[in-house]
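Running log. JK asked me to keep both predictions on one page so they can be read side by side. First protein, sequence followed by its tokens:
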Amino acid sequence: KFDAILIFYANYYSPVKQMKQISENNKKAQYYFIANEYKIAPAYTFLKDKNLTLITNWEKQDAIMLNLNLLFAKSPNKVIDKPYDCVYYGTFRDDRSEYVTEYLQSDLYLSATSKNFKKYKHIGCKARLIKKLCWVKNKETLNLFKYQLYIEDKHTHKVFNNLANRYYEAGFCNNVVFFDVNCRNTINKSELSYYKEQVENYIVKDYKDLQHKIKECNKNFEKHLAIQKSWRTNELNARTNMLKELKNIIYNGTK
């Protein structure tokens, strides 16, 4: 018997039979569905009659919003020589394909799974394709890049979602982040709102603009890295506070 049961994420490979059995044995428990992706919903049928609290990474009515992606924040690696300029990585998303086609041209690197390469090529992506990034501690592939391109789904332009995992991964891999101009709403509602004037220097509107700013930043990469590091001085404290808040939500909900 449990006071609280937490469910993270949802997919077709979840052990649903075992989860259903646990729920049947714990009908009076407080259930929490925790999700950092707006397309993920607590669709399991066995949750329909349960006391369910939804904790999300984005703005949603009747949900508690926390910056769950702070889990990816950690102390930065040692800065190493970086032989490559700019990379974009991640799952293929139809809702941002327009931006992918615009930005991912010959001078940028794209990291993805091999099964997604065809999808990127199909929409006109001409970036240099590389295999999925390695995330072994202190040996992350991302360390080899100076810059990272940050684009988001069109849905997120209007519905605030906390900064994506990749922003915090850029922090510990010492990347300078360039933001697509359509991400302004996210920037203005995130912790970056305190540095709006500085962030403006790293906002890009198209491939040509991105290449221009990379060229300018290459004149003094260390300077630009230092500027963006200054935005992150409270990041680890924010992570600790978020976890405390999450624990309090769960503890108070089961009193």
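And the second, directly underneath as requested:
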Amino acid sequence: MPIGAQDHLDELYAKQRLLSDEAARLEIERDRLDPDGLEANAYYILEIEIAALRQEASRIASRISDVLERDLER
């Protein structure tokens, strides 16, 4: 694997880890809220933020897979 590709992969893995860690942190915060009470709006917003973070982490995982697949083809 070329050195530049490894640096790119390292960056992608770091971003994916950052997004996953933040989603996990927000899940803990969300779980402390009452989804049916006064905190329902905050719960809802956190649900959306978590889903967006997970979706972006998944998108990055696909990019990582593409980079690795291209490397195998070389």
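Observation for JK regarding the second prediction: The chain has a mean pLDDT of 92.
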